[in-house]
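Minimal example, chain plus zinc ion.
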Amino acid sequence: MSIKIDDNSKITLDLKKQKLKGDSFVVGDETQGIFVELPQEAIYIVDLCDGTRTIKEIQSILEMEMKEVYDVKDFISDLYEVNLVYKINDHIIVERSGTRHFRFTKFIAHLLFAPRMYFVYSIIIFINIYMMFYIKGNLPDYRSVEIIDEHSGLSLVCFTFIGIVVTVFHEIGHYLSAVELQIPVKIKLSLRLFYLVVETDINSIWGIERNKRYICYLAGFYIENIILLLTFFIKKLNAIGNLGCHICDAIILTVFLNFVWQLMIFLRTDFYFIILNYLNIPALHFSAMQSISSAGKGIKEKIDKKEVIYLIIYFVGVIASIFYLFNEFLIYVNLFLISINDLEISFDDVCFGGLMFLHIVLWGKGAYNKYIDYRMEHNAER
Ligand SMILES: [Zn+2]
């Protein structure tokens, strides 16, 4: 149902606002996870749209109080198009029901992601670093992918399964942290550049205070650290046997590669958002890349300090991605060599071929999603 907006419409916006650096604000509806960046002047209009005044009245208030006059009706129509108008003349346009969670979910969320947990996770990370680098046999190794001796197919099945389980727990981490902060979340599959990413959409995070956002971005990484710590301890048990030990090594490799992955901030990983949040800006990649290209063309432009920080971390990400790809390469070559070891085609080789095919299909699906995303962002920019 589409309702016409005219000069006599009374608009209710009822949007959440967060100040960014400078004069701009992030404004939006956290129940839908839709946010836009607006200048200070627009915020004044947003505040006036509380359902008591008509558009004409708001327009005349602006004309009395401001030098530069905005077209209120146009502005409201734009917000309407992106689903940010709550009511027009008491007609609800977009239902905003808050998300409800089970008490048990809330309990677990609070247990894992209450603010005091930062300290606990710092200790866990510290112990993990120690266990990984100072205890013999715990260093991640690409050969750990051979979970079942001399079986590349079954090994890849197990390794993929471990990857999925770790990712699911990682996303559950984001999800629970969002529950703790009482914001809505979605989980989606997409591709950044040419890597497949399963990600939790926490766009609604813009509706909460900046300092509280960190836990949400870090939650996945924290959960993986819990997994890693448990794995180190389980590996120490004698009862788990050879296979158990191999599975533990594969988990260590998976968590380690996920960490390297996080460093690739140009793929908009969780770490990318932590940096954005720290620098208090909604998007940085584009402006930083523009500075580089204008510097490359010999145009002297003052590069923002924030952009410099971003570019340094970006560079670390590039190195991380080379390292990551190299590891992936070793993993698959290693499995391939195992599979061609005997000349007969066995069930195991079929498994290996099938899984490689499945990986390619998943990448294709992710690439398609990414393409749609890109198209939408590109259109929005124009
Ligand atoms: Zn994550």
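The pocket of zinc ion is lined by residues 170, 174, 220, 270 (CB under 6 Å). The chain has a mean pLDDT of 80.
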